[in-house]
Design goal:
Strand 1 and strand 2 form a beta hairpin. With about 525 residues, this protein is mostly helical. It has a two-stranded antiparallel sheet with strand order 1-2. The chain has one domain: Sodium/glucose cotransporter, CATH 1.20.1730.10. It contains 21 helices and two strands. Helix 3 packs parallel to helix 12.
Length: about 525
């Protein structure tokens, strides 16, 4: 093992040790509300950075820069869509969801909120939504594990095609994330996400600026020197890397990522945990500034790296490691530089861990609070419910581990599928639940199933030997969200209106101060 590798390994070990220590220090929880929502006591900075760090994942530092590195500025439409979604989510959903979940029988999870919102005595919504959480979080967590494995394989091995290094990285990423999630619960996850959010931001801001200085600020010239046929087209929002116009379907699909935010349980649960309305307003500003800076820098990195890197990642098919390669090329030469590079590489680890831990915790809450305590054994003790939740974390992590075993796993592809699934199934239901008094249980069930089924059919079931997402180039989230919304509204209007009790609760949210 080379000196450089040892120095980077030291940085990784110190960082991961800190995360486990935070989990251990927050290992005492008296009940499910403490474990899954931190006692609804999050401050503005912790809530904001935890929400956004858990949102972006390894996708921010690997998937997005990699997509832009290959296709050019035309892929920035995804970042624009995500920024729009973040702003709308904080302004439309955050404050009202926090209040409504308290009014609706102190709901601790999204599935329990659905049940309490509609007074669903049979628990249909809770069961359906819990199954959706488990299915798509297995896929989503797999993307984080795959990111971690690729990071380790490229730093300590010969690349993602180094199967031994990939496997070791996959095991390490899974074990570390599992340990501090199991130990500390929601508070540990949020505190680590706060640290990880800050580290991610520093890394993603510093690296592209240094690389830009490295090409003397001449991006067009650097792109041309590295073989980009049409540098001006590559830097255009309306053209692809070959100079061809971006299609309307492509722009709509990329902007459609905004719709996903309304249905992301691991983000929504942060809103539920904020301690006051006042803190929501502060968190909103912090989160939006963080997202503008991080998405802008990640997009800029993808463009600059195409002109900066000595290695052609398009030809090698390794575009998703663009951030890793850029750090390695910049911070080389002496031990101090290599250690700084190791710290910045921990930024990628931070992005990975901050999302995976949140997803595992939400999965645990769906199994423990919603399925076990809510349906299977309603008189279960807090201790037994917590233990079931921890077992669920391990099981889902194992499933995600298996999904991520393939070194060719695309971080962008896995995230895209999970994002579409949650956005289409939950997004319309969340919005209608919060803002439409007439919305009822049959409409919610029909809309949720429609959104879920649309994404599954569009992304996973081949027709004529090809998937619909490939033949149409339309992102399944856009279609799934639209169909779910329409079906939910129609079914609600043709069925019985909610009970007076449900409507009273809705009105109470408009007036109560919590």
């Amino acid at each position: 093992m080379s000196t450089n590798t040892i120095v980077i390994l030291v940085a990784f070990v110190v960082y991961m040790g800190m995360m486990i220590l935070i989990g251990a220090l927050n290992s005492k929880q008296s009940n499910n509300e403490d474990y899954f929502l931190g006692g609804r006591g999050l401050g503005s900075w912790t809530a904001a950075l935890s929400a956004q760090a858990s949102d972006m994942s390894g996708w921010l530092l690997m998937g997005l820069p990699g997509a832009i590195y290959v296709a050019g500025t035309g892929e920035v439409w995804i970042a624009i869509g995500l920024l729009i979604g973040t702003v709308l989510n904080w302004f439309l959903v955050a404050r009202r969801l926090r209040k409504y979940t308290i009014v609706a029988n102190n709901s601790l999870t999204i599935p329990s909120f659905f049940e309490n919102r509609f007074h669903d005595k049979k628990g249909v919504l809770k069961i359906v939504s819990s199954i959706i959480v488990i299915v798509f979080f297995a896929v989503y967590t797999a993307s984080a594990f795959a990111s971690g494995a690729k990071l380790f394989a490229n730093v300590f091995g010969t690349g993602a095609d180094d199967k031994t290094a990939y496997m070791i990285g996959l095991i390490i990423a899974a074990v570390v994330i599992l340990v501090y999630t199991l130990l500390g619960g929601f508070k540990a996850v949020c505190y680590t996400d706060f640290i990880q959010g800050m580290l991610m931001l520093v890394a993603i801001l510093a690296v592209p600026i240094i690389a830009y200085i490295g090409i003397n600020g001449d991006l067009v010239g650097a792109l041309g020197a590295k073989g980009v046929a049409d540098p001006q087209g590559y830097l255009s929002l309306m053209k692809d890397s070959n100079g061809n116009p971006i299609t309307a379907v492509s722009i709509i699909s990329n902007l459609g990522w905004a719709l996903g935010y309304f249905g992301m349980p691991h983000i929504l649960v942060r809103f539920m945990a904020i301690k006051s309305d006042k803190e929501v307003k502060k968190s909103r500003i912090i989160a939006i500034v963080w997202v503008i800076l991080s998405l802008g820098a990640a997009s800029f990195l993808g463009l600059v790296a195409r002109g900066f890197l000595n290695e052609d990642l398009v030809a090698s098919g390794k575009s998703e490691v663009v951030f890793i390669k850029t750090i390695q090329q910049i911070f080389d030469g002496n031990i101090v530089l290599v250690f700084i590079g190791g710290v910045f590489l921990c930024g990628i680890l931070a992005a990975i861990m901050s999302t995976a831990d949140s997803q595992l915790l939400v999965t645990a809450s769906a199994v423990s609070e919603d399925m076990y305590k809510g349906v299977i054994k309603k008189d279960a003790s807090e201790k037994s419910a917590l233990n079931v939740g921890r077992i669920a974390v391990v099981v889902v992590a194992i499933i995600a581990f298996v999904i991520a075993l393939n070194p060719e796993s695309s971080v962008m592809g896995l995230v895209s599928d999970a994002w579409a699934g949650f956005g289409a199934a939950f997004g319309p239901i969340i919005l209608l639940s919060l803002f439409w008094k007439r919305f009822n249980l049959p409409g919610a069930v029909a809309g949720m199933i429609t959104g879920f089924a649309t994404v599954v059919i569009w992304d996973y079931i081949p027709f004529g030997g090809a998937l619909l997402k490939d033949t149409t180039s339309l992102y399944s989230l856009v279609l799934g969200f639209a169909l779910a919304l329409v079906v939910a509204v129609i079914v609600t209007l043709i069925t019985k209106k909610p009970s007076a009790e449900v409507e009273e609760e809705f009105d109470k949210v408009n007036t109560v101060e919590i």
